[in-house]
Design brief:
Elements lengths: L5 H10 L5 H6 L2 E5 L1 H4 L8 E6 L5 E3 L2 E6 L7 H4 L2 H9 L1 E4 L12 H21 L5 H22 L7 H10 L1 H15 L2 H13 L4
Parallel strand pairs: 2-4
Antiparallel strand pairs: 1-2, 1-5, 3-4
Helix pairs in contact: 6-7, 9-10
Length: 207
């Protein structure tokens, strides 16, 4: 279902059995982001929304709705976040004005948070990866690979696109794969972890 305006949004939520009219009235901005905002979604993709104001998040029936207070829109924490950077580039405003999006910026803080997330993944990989089933191994390593790609793009001062775009580039562009794999060893991990991730990306995700 295409979401072009508030009526489309309310019809979507109605089909999902969720009453959203009060929330759409209270929110000063409503933004659709992620794969459905740029038309690269598949049939199982969630509808990702950001509402500006105060309300309860919703994560069910293919809906992922989060809130941010209007007072937080111009904070350093928000404007330097990966989500804000993504929305500024790929989000579609269904309500309100996109005044804050020109203020977003990729900083060292943005990169540090992404590196920390990847390093946490790698630590978990050391501890439990071999105990996972092949299906879960592939799912886990794909998740790590996407975050490595995200860091690679952020380092180049580029917003992160939806995961469908990342997957297409990884599978269809050998040059991108080569650059990302080189990036792992130079920017993220020690040599042993880099080699391990390289082998996982090459042997597991390719199956």
């Amino acid at each position: 279902m295409q979401i072009e305006n508030i009526r489309d949004l309310e019809n979507l939520f109605k089909k999902k059995g969720i009453d959203i009219k009060d929330a759409t009235f209270r929110a000063s901005e409503i933004i659709l982001y992620g794969s459905r905002a740029i038309g690269v979604n598949d049939t199982e993709s969630d509808y990702d929304f950001l509402f500006v104001g105060e309300g309860e998040p919703i994560k069910k029936n293919g809906i992922d709705l989060s809130w941010i207070k209007k007072s937080e829109l111009n904070t350093k924490q928000w404007l330097e976040s990966e989500l804000a950077i993504h929305i500024a580039k790929y989000g579609r405003w269904l309500k309100g004005k996109d005044k804050w999006k020109t203020k977003v910026r990729i900083t060292e803080s943005t990169l540090q948070k992404k590196r920390a997330k990847i390093n946490n993944y790698v630590e978990s990989l050391r501890n439990k990866f071999e105990k996972l089933s092949p299906a879960f191994q592939k799912k886990y390593i794909t998740k790590v690979r996407r975050d490595v790609q995200r860091l690679f793009l952020l380092k180049k001062n580029q917003p992160v696109p939806p995961k469908q775009v990342l997957d297409k580039e990884w599978k269809g562009n050998k040059y991108i794969r080569k650059r990302v794999l080189e990036f792992i060893s130079k920017e993220i991990l020690d040599s042993n972890d880099s080699k391990k991730l390289f082998d996982y990306f090459r042997n597991i995700e390719a199956t």
